[in-house]
Specification:
This protein has 252 residues and is α+β, with helices and mostly antiparallel strands. The chain has two domains: 155 residues, Glutaredoxin (3-Layer(aba) Sandwich); 44 residues, no CATH class. It is 31% helix and 20% strand. The chain contains seven helices and ten strands. Strand 9 and strand 10 form a beta hairpin. The longest helix has 21 residues. The chain starts with a helix and ends with a strand.
Length: 252
């Protein structure tokens, strides 16, 4: 009887140790569900959603037609960094219009809070500039549907507030660029204009842009131009090369 009792104790102890080794605790209280918010990648179709906004109901991206689109998330209304970002976007609306870009801003605040914040922002003079109207929609994502769909809830930072995310989407509703910033650092909105300009140029001319490219600067070509043996031919055609593997040309 003693031998049987000893055998059972040993078996039960081993079973407990085995089970503890297999069933791992969740890290910092983060559930498997929190980890499953996949970020759509460059080259993929932009996920569709329907939402209420300060401009009425929208179906994204379908309602925005054959335009470039920027989906811009922020953590919370009536906070300092977010307020400056939205105002900067508002001051750039004319530039985005010229580029054929539609802006959509998302946070997990409810619609009424968006309306109050928008009204308050439209009375603010930032950096001694005039007040500005916010024409783009602020999306009510109180249920965190859009934020999860685009992977903008990063659980180890916050489980209910977006990080500062940006998705640039082309006229065919394909994602072309993605940015993520932490909650305490504001984005450079001029970089969004630069990126859109570069994406549109490279798509049109089948070229690439070098580091720190700005509108009007030379662009990169994938292969050397065809020449007749005279090195000056390439130069007169608008090409130049600091190395055999590096060819520039004037942008059209």
């Amino acid at each position: 009887m003693k031998k049987l009792f000893f055998f059972l104790v040993v078996v039960l102890s081993y079973t407990q140790l085995w089970s503890q080794d297999v069933v791992k605790p969740t890290n910092l209280g983060i559930s498997n569900e929190d980890r499953s918010f996949r970020i759509p990648l460059i080259g993929e179709k932009a996920p569709s959603f329907t939402a209420e906004t300060t401009n009425g109901s929208i179906n994204f991206p379908e309602d925005f037609g054959h335009h470039w689109k920027i989906l811009f998330s922020h953590p919370k209304d009536f906070t300092p960094v977010c307020s400056t970002e939205i105002l900067e976007l508002a001051h750039l609306q004319d530039q985005f219009d010229k580029l054929g870009v539609k802006l959509i801003v998302v946070s997990t605040d409810r619609l009424e809070t968006h309306h109050q914040w928008k009204k308050a922002l439209e009375m603010v003079k930032l950096d001694d500039r005039d007040v500005v109207k916010i024409k783009f929609p602020l999306v009510d994502d109180e249920k965190i549907i859009v934020s999860k769909l685009y992977g903008m809830i990063h659980s180890e930072t916050n489980t209910t507030r977006d990080v500062r995310g940006v998705f640039i989407i082309d006229p065919n509703n394909v994602i072309q660029a993605i940015y993520f910033y932490p909650m305490n650092v504001g984005r450079n909105t001029d970089e969004l204009v630069r990126m859109i300009s570069a994406l549109q140029l490279t798509a049109k001319e089948k070229v690439s842009t070098p580091a720190n490219w700005k509108e009007g600067m030379d662009v990169l070509v994938k292969s050397p131009p065809k020449m007749d043996g005279n090195s000056s031919t390439a130069e007169t055609a608008g090409y130049h090369s600091p190395a055999w593997f590096l060819w520039f040309k004037k942008s059209n």
